[in-house]
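Exercise 7. Given the components listed, write out the predicted structure of the assembled complex. Treat all entries as one system.
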Amino acid sequence: MTSTTYNLWTIGCQMNEADALCAAALLESSGFRPVPRAGDAGLLLLNTCVVRQQAEDKIYSRLTYVAELKQKNPALVVALMGCLVGKNPREFEKLRERFPFVDLFLPPSDLAPLREFLRARGIASPGPTGADDLPPPPLPDSMTGRAIVAHLPVVLGCSHACTYCVIPYRRGGERSRPSAEILAEAEKLVARGVREIILLGQIVDRYGLDRPGEIHLPELLRRIAALPGLARVRFLTSHPRWITADLIAAVASVPGLCPYFEIPVQAGADAVLAAMRRGYAAADYEALIAKVRAAIPHAGISTDVIVGFPGETAAHFDDSLALMRRVDPDMIRIAKYSPRPLTYSARHLPDDVPEAEKERRRVAMEAQLRARLTDKNAPLLGQTVEILVETIEKTGRRHGRTPDYKPVFVDGSAAAPGDLIRARITWAGPFSLIAEAL
Ligand code: SF4
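Answer.
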């Protein structure tokens, strides 16, 4: 390899994004610099997601392009990381056969192969910090635009094994990271100018339960929120079964801990929830959201729904629509079911909802959401909100979010990224707001 330039391509969830930032941080602390075009890089890092077929298809099309680049430039180093690689060494062999132009395979949240690769070439890199080989911060210089908000993984993997989900097979079983390590990383992030930290876990509420003697999520949040210089803390993703009264109380009372919950429900019919093995009924979900809202009336609630799960009838889907009307979330991420290799549903449940019907359900759910959010956000007009400025648009508008995670564009502000400002809402759409700085 002659060039110490790299290009990062990443898709997927916030956990994947955090992994990509760790890899980029490792490369940059080892002397690499980022380039925006893959064709100009000496090392290509592709961070993959296989949680849906659509994401997997994107990877294959990117790999076709990368194969052409490698043909033109055989010195190019190609590193494939993330959920396509998974944790099973037998899978690596299959991938090696299928993509012989890939030089390095990095399992999710594991940079050991990249570190080893650098070492073999005499390039020094900072050592691992824990059992999972995550590199230390700081965040890469090239990503200063994102450095106001940083994702910090606290629980890796998942042991819940919902029948449709490939994550336990790709990211392994649940492992909480030591709180001392997390707090040290959080301190470094704050010293670097990060103003908001989002703690990540597939079931983040379970933080510490697998580590005897460890603190749990509410206490971890309290300690991180107390770091001087940090404006905001959030956590995601929650599972309805694991949100505790102590966690809700912490969100209600700890300054800086944002009133925002991401709690996927996935379906509104109990038969579908049971087939998904989610571990709760629709009424449990409704009761939980009522409890959250009773304690924190202004909490932002976001959820996920899968449409077209095997066996989901039109009536089951109507139950999902009805549940969403009753629960009235502030955002729904809607996904069409696609069978994922190795999962129980892919092996045992026929994918029996036709694609056109899945699309009809997705569109219907989205239309209901759009209509509801249009009405729900309208009363925000004229209200004053607090915004953490994250970026400055080309037009000079500031962009940031409210504590309950609504995206806002702010006119008339000279604030810098990282500033907390107050602004009055002048336009309220279903998915974003416009405000005038005060
Ligand atoms: S809780 Fe279920 S959906 Fe979430 S990561 Fe674990 S297995 Fe997947």
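Discussion: The longest strand covers residues 384-392. Residues 158, 160-162, 165, 167-168, 202-203, 239 surround iron/sulfur cluster (CB under 6 Å).
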